[in-house]
Structure formats: C-alpha cells, structure tokens
RNA sequence: GGCGGCGUAGCCAAGUGGCCAAGGCAGUGGUCUGCAAAACCAUUAUUCAGCGGUUCGACUCCGCUCGCCGCCUCCA
C-alpha cells in the first residue's frame, strides 16, 4: 500500500514518491506573528502535525520546515498602535504561538526560519529575477513582472485576463501590469528597514518563502502546504518567484487544508467571529480540540459549534473509557481458564492497523481512521463484557495488546496520550465545577444510599438517586460499589 | 463577472463504479440491574439536493437546474 495525496496543482490524488527515496521534504507557511492564534491556525498546525506524524509512522524521514513571517504591514501597523517595535511585537506573538502549540501537543518542525533572519537570501533571489528580466525596479520598489512567467496562474487555475476582469486590483501606476506584485518595498520614514541594491526597504510577503525553502529544502522539494486561502496569491507568487529564479520545478505536491467556519462562514477578523486557541482551551481539553479537528477530512470545511465540541467530548471519552477499563484489569490471569475471545474478535484486532493505514494512506483521511478506533473500542468493550472474574491470561494479553495498538494509532492524531483514568477524572472534575454540588456531599449521599440498599430500602435508595440526578449526577452501581458521573446537559 | 468546492439518516461525518451506503452524537427495543446508569446486542438512509446522460451496473463519471460556501484585497 502506498500513500496517496491530493495535489492542488494537478487536482488529483497522486501516489507519494519523494524525490529522494524515503525522505519527504515539507514546507508549510506559518503565521504572521502580530496577534494571538485562532482555531484556524490550530487546524493548520494540527493537520500538518498529523501528516508528519503519519509519514514518520510509515517510516519516511521527514524534514519539516515552517516559517514565521515576522515583518509585514500588519505587524508594523499593530506595533505602531501599541507603541512598540515590530521586532518586539513579532517576538512576543511568536512566544504566544509556542505557548498555544505546546498546549496542543504539536511537535516542533525541524526548522522554523524567520523572515527577518533571511533578508540576504531574499535580496539574492530578487537580484536573480532582475538579472533574468523577470523583475524590475520602479521608484523604491521592486516588482515581479507576471507576464514574464508564462505559467502564472497554474496553481489557482486562472489566467491574467480573467483576474484583471475581476477589477479588484488596486491601481498602482508604478506597475507594468496590474497583477505584478511587490518583491521589495522601499521603506517610509520610521519603518523597519534593511539595506539593498534598491535602497533601504523591506521584503514583500511572498519572497520569504521562496528564499527560505530554497535555503533549507533546495530548489525543488516534495510538499508545500498551507490554508486554502494561500493558494492565491501567495503560493501562486511563490511558484512564479522560485521557478522564475531557479529555472526548475518548485514543488511537486501542494497540500491545502480547508477553513474553520462558524455557522458555515469563514472565521475572520472583519466578521469578528474568530475564537482564539486559548479561549477554547479554557473550556476544552486540548485532545478534544484535536479529536474535533480530525473528525473531518482536512480539505473540507470544519464548522465549529458548541454542539460539535460536545460530540467530540463524548466520542473521546468513549475511547478513553475503553482504555481505562483495560488499564484497570489485572495483568495475571489464570492459565487454565477458557478464552472468551472469538476468532472474529482476533481477526478484527488484526485488521485494525491495516484499516487505519488504508484510511490514512488515502489522503490522510483521519475521519475514517477515527472510525477504526471506535470499532476497536467496541471490540474491547464486548470482550470485557464477557470476561469472567478470573480471566484467562491469554485473553488479558490480547486485551492489553489491543489497547496498546489503539493508543499507538491514536497517537498519530495526538489522541489518547494521557493516562485514561486521569483524563476521565479530570473531565469529571471539570463537569463538577460547573454544577452546584461538591464531592463530599455526593459521597455522603452515596454512603447513605448504600446503607438503604443494604436493607433493601429501595424507596430511599431511589430517592437519593433522583435527588442526585436532579443535580446532574448520575450513579452507576458496580460490583465494587457505586461510582458517579456528571451528566452532560443540552 | 471569472475560478474552485460543497449538498449523504434528527445532528456531525466517511465513502479511490459493483458484497447489507463506515463511524460518532441523539433516538427506539432487548440483555444486564432491586430499579437505573454504563456497556453490549438489535434497530434507525430501498437511498445519497433535483433532473437527464454514459455504463451490464453510479453516492461515485458527464451535462443541466436549485441551494450553500470559498478565492479573485490581508488571511490558516
């Protein structure tokens, strides 16, 4: 089996064939650091985190580069508003970015270059483009001449005529063609600036990715990723710059993930409907966010809602509950007990990893892969159900092995990484803090009910249970006594 | 206006032409239980927005219609 990936450039799913055997070189556009990250940024980071983890699980060596845009108009403007320098502002939000990413359990890329540390490399590429007649200086700016790149528009499937018909292009008399884009911007007084052959200034947005990907991954590399909104103009312009300067193919496979939406609309600052990662983590465990994100294929829109998060919570708790139940088993069974595990169960367990891989090989279909985890949890629960008080040691070995496999596969999505019982207890505490009940009161009532039950005083027993239920506490009588959970409302 | 995508059960969501259209949440019946809860078993779309076409056969391919969304300006 081989991995197939949807390539935006060709519009097809293609077999992954790294240019260098077994070594995938990946470049992802990171954030512009001028504000806290929202859940759209989280989706991007999570999607590529999952992709990299899966490729490594499949024994590929991965070189993963993700940049920081730490100089740009938004940063300069925001810094001016806050009476700070663009450097300090960018640094601060890079720091905040790491805080969020760490909480989400996202692995650091292998390299995280910053634009401001690669000005020379950018100047170099711009010079090459000017030498080739593909870029020109106009005033203090340097522009890319899109007409010199015959394939301009190949990624976003549009042509220069159509785009100009769109007529949403700002008029700039310096440009030879309205679609020409800036490579180097002359600086205005007070703005951050670097020396260049064209005077003091700063780089345009797109050039940093061409310069940094070339430096760290070479002229041609395997995969370049980002959000769908980067297809045009950002990635289109990167192709024009890199292929123009290098004279060879830039990227083999382009991966673009879908947006996070709220009420089916894209989150955006202008609509003021965005949620920051830390806002969300106030209310939900990071793995719940991960579960939610991976419950939809990465290219489809992901609609955020409280209900969706509750569904994700219920789903993740179900998986953790199955793991916790196996964790709670003793490890030494009886060698002379009969096995309760059927051949069908064994077969299903053997197929779990294969089915998981089949789903993930198909353009990283994490939604389908999750369903395999649920099937495994169901099998575990079914076996547990039929387990005698003194289970066969072979059956215990089987259950522990199944649990370990489920955890190994879930880890590719960053799920089930916590101790299961600890996770469930923490969720219970979180629910408890939202209602007007404390543990001591609950325990006292459970004890009173235990006494009532021991005398078969069912009336009082049920009264206590109903009273607790009125406070959303649900009781569960088991062989080892009574436990409780906080019932989910709404 | 140009380009791209989506429309699958009450909700969410997979489905790379052909065994009964995954899985989750919710619901219903049963097992278990003093009664419950959890779990398990069963059940819940003769049908995949609508209409045509290609095919022995389409949710899957093609065309048209309707509805929704995105990009074309900064954006994950």
Automatic annotation (TrEMBL):
EC category name: ligase
Species name: Desulfopila aestuarii DSM 18488
Chain sites annotated for binding ATP: 269
GO cellular component term, pick one: cytosol
Name the record gives this protein: Cysteine--tRNA ligase
Keywords: Aminoacyl-tRNA synthetase, ATP-binding, Cytoplasm, Ligase, Metal-binding, Nucleotide-binding, Protein biosynthesis, Zinc
InterPro entries: Cys-tRNA-ligase, Cys-tRNA-synt_Ia_DALR, Cys-tRNA/MSH_ligase, Rossmann-like_a/b/a_fold, tRNA-synt_1_cat_dom, tRNAsynth_Ia_anticodon-bd
Documented EC number(s): 6.1.1.16
Positions annotated to bind Zn(2+): 29, 209, 234, 238
Superkingdom field: Bacteria
Ranges spanned by the short sequence motif 'HIGH' region, renumbered to the chain: 31-41
CC cofactor: Zn(2+)
SUPFAM superfamilies: Anticodon-binding domain of a subclass of class I aminoacyl-tRNA synthetases, Nucleotidylyl transferase
Gene Ontology biological process terms, A to Z: cysteinyl-tRNA aminoacylation
Main subcellular location of this protein, as a coarse class: cytoplasm
